[in-house]
# Entry
Amino acid sequence: MSRYVHFIPNFNDTDDALNCPNGTFLEPLNTTGTVANGPMSIFGFVDQCTDPSIKPNTGTPPFTLKVTVHYPPLHPPFNLTLNTVDPITWTVSLVSSRPFFMSMVSSEGLAWAGPMHSRGGEICLYSAPHVRSSHVCC
# Structure
């Protein structure tokens, strides 16, 4: 079972530091996300068969991009690690409206993550002309 945990920072008026006695938080990893038609939207829809790209702007290599799919159960995550600050690209190979998470983590534990959905009905996911989208895995 997956659980979503949201932390809402508690800033006081005299100090910009995060004030949360029950947890320790690192600064978020600053990234730039792009898709074919411009900036990538967090919580947005990414077209099937496109290549979203995440570039780390802060942090120290190596960087690991992880893509996790919520359904089907036991679907393995996609992990890619690079020892550079170059953008990491992943081709969306999910059927339309499939929720997924993309995250990037630096070697020191700085992290960025975004929940997203696949969108579209591109034929690039079909292995043969007679295959329907309902038969495409994931």
User: Anything to note?
Assistant: The first strand starts at residue 31 and ends at 35. The CA atoms of residues 50 and 91 lie 6 Å apart. The chain is about 0% helix and 30% strand. The beta strands are 31-35, 38-39, 45-47, 53-56, 63-69, 78-82, 88-89, 99-105, 111-119.
